[in-house]
């Protein structure tokens, strides 16, 4: 490997150039197509490039999901990600399921029905091996979040109870701390980043060691919750 390739300045310049190009492509797509900003954000956060979805992005996407057109666009992206997954790109599936889990708990109730046909895919996600480019088995994090999502999709009563429980927790912590987006995000991470012994694992440790808006009274509350999430994170 050349000295230039090993130079941290070179890698930083390469990173900045990549970000610049992506932003130009994003601007062009917004200008010449009917794609929405929330749609592009969903594509971005469910891809393999991000190591973790930030709370504000999840809140923005969740708020948009209460609009019928945006809902269909978001669902389409999540479904495509799940249908076309690559076991070597474990982060993409992990991010997709993390976003879906967040929408099931905080988005419209119709998310539950929309993803009933994807339960078989999620079952496969739990059973297959997820090997990264370095040969590490990265399945623990993916399986944990997949099991959470599957549990919500398999039992509608549990699904609704869990939504209500998380909502009460969130509103309670908003009153106490004034930051609901962190609360929901941290709860998701605390479950999916646990090892078998209950300890928390970093991304590297995990891989190496595990070698239509519903006509429902909740909807108005959910929409207000989404607004709180966005305003509290800005």
Automatic annotation (TrEMBL):
Record keyword Repeat present: no
Locations listed in the record: Cytoplasmic vesicle, Clathrin-coated vesicle; Golgi apparatus
Signal peptide residues on this chain, from the entry's feature table: none
Example GO BP: endocytosis
Key words, A-Z: Cytoplasmic vesicle, Golgi apparatus
Molecular function terms, GO-annotated: clathrin binding; phospholipid binding
Gene3D superfamilies attached to this UniProt entry: 1.25.40.90
PROSITE patterns xrefs: ENTH
Keyword field contains Cell inner membrane: no
GO cellular component: clathrin vesicle coat; endosome; Golgi apparatus; plasma membrane
Segments forming domain ENTH: 30-163
Protein's name according to its UniProt entry: ENTH domain-containing protein
Source organism: Brassica oleracea var. oleracea
Source organism phylogeny: Eukaryota, Viridiplantae, Streptophyta, Embryophyta, Tracheophyta
């Amino acid at each position: 490997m050349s000295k230039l390739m090993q130079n941290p300045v070179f890698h930083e310049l390469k990173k900045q150039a990549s970000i610049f190009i992506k932003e130009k492509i994003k601007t062009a797509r917004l200008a010449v197509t009917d794609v929405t900003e929330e749609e592009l954000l969903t594509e971005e956060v469910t891809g393999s490039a991000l190591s973790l979805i930030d709370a504000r992005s999840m809140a923005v996407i969740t708020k948009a999901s209460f609009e019928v057109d945006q809902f269909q666009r978001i669902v389409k992206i999540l479904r495509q990600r799940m249908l076309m997954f690559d076991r070597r790109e474990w982060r993409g599936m992990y991010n997709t399921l993390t976003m879906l889990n967040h929408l099931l708990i905080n988005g419209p109730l119709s998310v539950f029905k929309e993803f009933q046909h994807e339960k078989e895919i999620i079952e496969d996600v739990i059973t297959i091996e997820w090997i990264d480019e370095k040969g590490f088995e990265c399945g623990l994090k993916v399986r944990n979040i997949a099991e959470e999502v599957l549990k919500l999709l398999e039992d509608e009563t549990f699904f609704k109870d869990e939504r209500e429980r998380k909502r009460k927790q969130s509103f309670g912590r908003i009153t106490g701390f004034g930051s609901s987006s962190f609360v929901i995000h941290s709860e998701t991470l605390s479950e999916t980043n646990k090892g078998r012994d209950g300890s928390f694992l970093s991304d590297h440790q995990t891989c190496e060691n595990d070698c239509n808006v519903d006509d429902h009274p909740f909807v108005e509350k959910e929409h207000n919750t989404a607004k709180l999430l966005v305003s509290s994170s800005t």
